[in-house]
Amino acid sequence: MKNSYPEYAAIVVAGGRSSRLGGTPKASLSNGSKTLLASSLQAVATARQRVVVGPSDLPVPADVKLTREDPPFSGPAAAITAGVRALPPSCEWTCVIAVDMPRIAEAIDALLEVTRQAPADIEGFFGVSGEIAQPLVGIYRTENLRRVFDTDTAHQSVRRFLRQLNLQAVPLDGGVTDDVDTWESAHATGFDSPQWN
Description:
Elements: E1 8-13, E2 29-30, H1 36-43, E3 49-53, E4 64-67, H2 76-85, E5 93-98, H3 104-115, E6 124-129, E7 132-141, H4 142-149, H5 158-162, E8 167-171, H6 183-189, E9 193-194
Parallel strand pairs: 1-3, 1-5, 3-4, 6-8
Antiparallel strand pairs: 2-9, 5-7, 6-7
Helix pairs in contact: 1-3, 2-4
């Protein structure tokens, strides 16, 4: 049951340039009923605190913190740094997800499940789908995430910092981490209607 999961916070990385979408914000893409941003926030609705890292004009609910990586467009590692700095210190775990995965809710369930009996020496878990590791589909012990990302992370690889942690892979069903990165993938998933620019 969801209420038996350890307390966690969530960071939604939503600040990329969306170059292959002609600059259309991925977060704004809708399937007719909800945007990718709303879908991502819904996937982590049970989090004690949710933080979105992206432009200051993103429409987020009142109970969601909005912050920005410094400098803007400096990459997902910098976004994680901004996110963890905005989080309360008390949550044991922090879920980190990218905003562009329509089926992310399925991954969240799998990640939360493994935290229930996580060995003390394991500092986090990341999803693997189609033999591809997905560091932006992960859940990490907050204190460890804060430790390795509390530095200059601008324009650097997320993996460079996560490799300092003792992590375990979580196998996910094929397609769960498929992202919307081009108009072709946007049309394929149905998230192809921008709600803002």
